[in-house]
Amino acid sequence: MADQGAADPGNNNNNKPEASEGTIIKVTVKTPKDKEEIAIAEDASVTQFKEEISRRFKAKQDQLVLIFAGKILKDGDSLSQHGIKDGLTVHLVIKTAHKAGDGGSTSASSSSSTQAGSTSTSSPGTNPSSTAGSTGTAVPPSQTPNILTGFGDLAGLAGLGMGSANFMELQQQMQRQLMSNPEMLSQIMENPLVQNMMSNPDLMRQMIMANPQMQQLMERNPEISHMLNNPELMRQTMELARNPAMMQEMMRNQDRALSNLESIPGGYNALRRMYTDIQEPMFSAAREQFGSNPFSALGGNSESGVQPSRTENREPLPNPWGPPSSSNPSESAGASTGSASTTAGTTPSVSNPLGINPGSLGNGMFNSPGMQSLLQQISENPQLMQNMLSAPYMRSMMQSLAQNPELASQNPASSPSSAGTNAAQQQLMQQMLQMFAGGGGGGTTQTPEVRFQSQLDQLSAMGFINREANLQALIATGGDINAAIERLLGSQPS
Amino acid sequence: IPVARVIVPRNFRLLEELEDGQKGGGDGIVSWGLADDEDMTLTHWNGMIFGPPKTVYEGRIYSLKIECGARYPEHPPLVRFVNKINLSCVHSSSGVVDIKSMGALSRWKNSYNIKTVLQELRLHMTLKENNKLSQPPEGQVYSN
């Protein structure tokens, strides 16, 4: 009973002089970011515990706030008084000047921010810094306004470590790498700093709007600023940009929906035009980041040569559209319905992190001469048109049009004007449509009927006697019988 | 396929929650524990919420008193703030939390527990309607 030799209250073998009993317990101390196991005497006071903690966490004792079981541990208390036993967890909050329990991320970004500050072009310096102030995760205070610039900065400095004195250059290099390597992009997107920034719609808007080219673009197309000012859209956009998987999903959906549009005579024209007019200037605006404008060839440059697009393979359309149709596409596309709010738009490619939906950007595009010349080119070389259409860009355009049935319906409505003028042109349209609808080979001019002959037969054998409707359905689904049947059945109740 | 639901007796539930609280189940953002270790009825609890970042509550630690009545967990607990706070659903004079007006908690399920309540309250602080409300000076408590 009295042999307490080893556990002598005198603590001969215990190097914690304050513990009269000498029983050491292990208490886990948890901060929002960290976890440490601290050995302390069972009957230690909170003060002593804090001494130990301040050593381990490298914080000042008076910055420490300890919580256990919903109670704040006061210095004068003892651990046992609160029931703190071996194996239990105590929460720690380290009070910093700004907020509790954090400090890690500020150093990395502040170093990059000072450097970033020197290269801002028309940097909305105050605005991002004010938002940065409120984010608390030390977003670099002065952002250069270029799209992806902020990311380029951080990632470039941290990851690439290039010794380029010119940060613009660095950013461009960065972005070029990004373009060629979507993995990197997604990595960067994963970076919490980046995500933080992206999750701040105001910041994003600032960045985008401060780009002078973007500003021009916005002047020309008020719809763009409309779009930018729509926080919902921005948020979706950023979500998309942040999540490549989601983006792909969106693209796939778009592609599918787009194919539905192909059967609308005149609709294709409209889409084309809309897309070119919006997307092209947009890309031009973003050109310096992307290093190439995949659409420049479309804008009417006949022999500008193929721009090595980083993300998409686009060929120039050197040959103008046939003469009869040059004036008409403008009319058919003239039916713009004002700002189509198709918020489901997404980026056609990883290269456009804005994820701006061209479709929503405005239907006033249709009257652009650029579109006309585009169509001219297309008509000459159906194969090219095929290629162009197969590019996801187009699809997202069409997607947006698909989502705005009003718009789409207005196109055919206006096409009577063109129908009245040239029936042959309509025929040509049909052919165009088939071509990409069915992936027709080598620019042949088969009518849909011929192409879908076997499918039509099957459909009529099944009892779908309305040949016209069958044909339409087949065109819309690109020859897919099952989908065509769905369509046919779906359209009956309406 | 209907799943047989076991109704866990109140005390078992509360003991579980006690253990979870002691083991730091709140991950450093909420904490809870028995107010009185001798309380055999496991009714009176302390809660603690760390003000979420990017809100006016940031950096503050809010103490709460939670009462798990006899019909807990079928019925939600009574919750009130100790530290003064300006937050919707909290009576400004007494600090009592009006759980029925609190979104997720208003449709109380018996699977909810003290941790849920604290976490929801914290989430509540981050809502647009709340995250910028001006707050009383730190350190003030409700006098009850």
What's the topology here?
The complex is a heterodimer of chains A (494) and B (144).
Chain A: E1 24-30, E2 35-41, H1 46-57, E3 64-68, E4 71-72, E5 89-94, H2 104-117, H3 126-135, H4 149-160, H5 167-180, H6 182-190, H7 192-198, H8 201-210, H9 212-220, H10 222-228, H11 231-242, H12 244-261, H13 267-285, H14 287-290, H15 328-332, H16 369-380, H17 382-390, H18 392-403, H19 405-421, H20 423-438, H21 448-451, H22 453-462, H23 467-477, H24 481-491
Parallel strand pairs in A: 1-5
Antiparallel strand pairs in A: 1-2, 3-4, 3-5
Helix pairs in contact in A: 2-4, 4-5, 5-6, 8-11, 9-10, 9-13, 11-12, 12-18, 13-16, 13-18, 16-17, 22-23, 23-24
Chain B: H1 10-22, E1 30-34, E2 44-50, E3 61-67, E4 78-81, H2 114-126
Q: Say what oligomer this is.
A: heterodimer
Number of domains of chain B: 1
**Mind telling me the CATH class of one domain in chain A?**
Alpha Beta
Percent of residues of chain A in helical segments? 40-55%
Large-scale geometry of chain A: elongated
Structural class per helix/strand content of chain B? alpha+beta
Largest sheet of chain A: 5 strands, mixed
Tell me the series of helices and strands of chain A, N- to C-terminal. Answer: EEHEEEHHHHHHHHHHHHHHHHHHHHHHH
Total number of beta strands of chain A: 5
Please state roughly what percent of the residues of chain B sit in beta strands, choosing from under 5%, 5-15%, 15-25%, 25-35%, 35-45% or over 45%.
15-25%
Strand order of the largest sheet of chain B: 1-2-3-4
Q: Roughly how many Å is the radius of gyration of chain B?
A: 15 Å
Tally of helical runs of chain A: 24
| Order of neighbouring strands in the sheet with most strands of chain A | 2-1-5-3-4
Task: Tell me how many strands of chain B there are.
Answer: 4
How many strands, which pairing sense, and closed or not: the largest β-sheet of chain B? 4 strands, antiparallel
Short key terms for the protein model shown above:
heterodimer, A: 494 residues, mainly alpha, Ubiquitin-like (UB roll), Helicase, Ruva Protein, domain 3, five-stranded mixed beta sheet, 24 helices, 5% strand, disordered N terminus, B: 144 residues, alpha+beta, Ubiquitin Conjugating Enzyme, four-stranded antiparallel beta sheet, 2 helices, 4 strands, phosphoprotein (chain A), Ubiquitin-like_dom (chain A), Ubiquitin-like_domsf (chain A), isopeptide bond (chain A)
